[in-house]
Input
Amino acid sequence: MKDTISIGHGGGGRLARDLIKSVFLKHLSNPILAPLGDSAVFELNGSKLALTTDSYVVRPIFSPGTDIGKLAVCGTINDLSVVGAKPLYLSCALIIEEGFSLKDLEVVALSIKETAKKAGVEVITGDTKVIERSPGESQSNIYINTAGLGIVENGIDLGIGKITVCDKIILSGTMGDHGIAVLSKRDGFDFEATIESDCAPLNGIIQKIIKAGRIKFMRDPTRGGLAGVLNEIAEDGNLEIKIDEDSIPVRDDVKGICNMLGLDPLYIANEGKVVIIAAKDDACNILKALQNDPLGQNAAIIGEVTSKEKGKGVYLKTPYGGTRILDMPLDDLLPRIC
Output
């Protein structure tokens, strides 16, 4: 553990995970927080609720297919949805640096409104703070914190502890779109292809697939990407997971840019995809339900849980017939993408 915080501690990889466990769980752990889920799930007056919070510091704040307002709403809705909750209400707090464009603020506010309306949730409380511009920055920035409350309906009970050998790993779509879309708008990059972020609220499609078969666990592959999420699941569940590289959907243009820059799309953030672990016998029905929705047309079964005995880890079968370890990322390849 380093003596000071680095940018990598916020990247969703090994550094971030170690920081959470060594500092925050050390002082704040309780039965609701300890599982480190995308949302806290708890009971109150006979109802099962889910609560989550997240902060958004993406730079630039506008990129193809998304902006910081849309991202904040979608990210919070998705964190509720992957624990099986139906999102209901959001809070929204904005920290704005002096000098920020009022016109851009209007665009962000409208994006928050439209995204929430599309997802069927309401923003019911908020806060605004204005601070000095960060030293050395050429432009003023904006940061958003959102919290979300949802309800988990009777019969829905997801958790890593429910995963068993032969459960299938299902991916709802292509990897790396969001991270590359954000990167394309940063200084120094000028890609010929226009790649749009996959940023989208997943509550609708997730409610459909929950009815399609036995889902054991879900998580959205944001910071750390697919590799980060699968390693978290393997570590927390003491599981061995094997996936097939040829089965993982990646757009050709995303793959080309990653090859050019020496990046791996399996480690790049997504904001409109979900990783699903489902019972073997129900995997095809769940896949069909995904593919019948516009957000899941490129969904695929990419692997399975192979052991709870041989130790934990994630293994990737390559196109050449070999197998390699798919490690947990140390930090984030592309910082500040959400």
In short: The first strand starts at residue 40 and ends at 44. The helical segments are 14-28, 68-81, 102-119, 177-183, 203-210, 225-237, 252-261, 283-291.
